[in-house]
Fold:
Amino acid sequence: MKHFKEITVKEVSLLICDGCSEKVEPSDYTFHEFISVSHSCGYGSIHGDGKQFSIDLCQQCFADMCDDSLTITEPTYEDDEELDENTMSRLAARNILLAKKITNKEEEAIVLKRVNMLWDAQHISAEPNELYQLMDLVFAYQGISRD
Ligand SMILES: [Zn+2]
Structure:
């Protein structure tokens, strides 16, 4: 027999950028691109031993702060690491989504493939924003109005 007790779980419902005050919710695509740092200071810290600090930044403020000192690398995968088709198409469409624009037929094909994949109900429920944003890109590229 098992006895259960109620526990309260806290989760982040809103992120506010400490740089520009942009507010994002978990349903926003940019929510997952926020950079959050928290640190416990030790002996020798300029902030004081035992102090805690934290900062939450949107990706734009973070990039502005880091400027040229930020090291960005392409994703790499071990040869024996099999990526499923969902992950492959998500990564392929990601850069186009970040650029917010389809510029050629090749990119259109990548986005359409991703849209088809997300159309699967299983993926729609997981990432509705991605689907709508991708569809907007396709509509913009094809000159179709959503109205
Ligand atoms: Zn910001």
Q: What stands out?
A: The longest strand covers residues 35-40. Residues 17, 19-20, 22, 57-58, 60-61 surround zinc ion (CB under 6 Å). The chain has a mean pLDDT of 85.
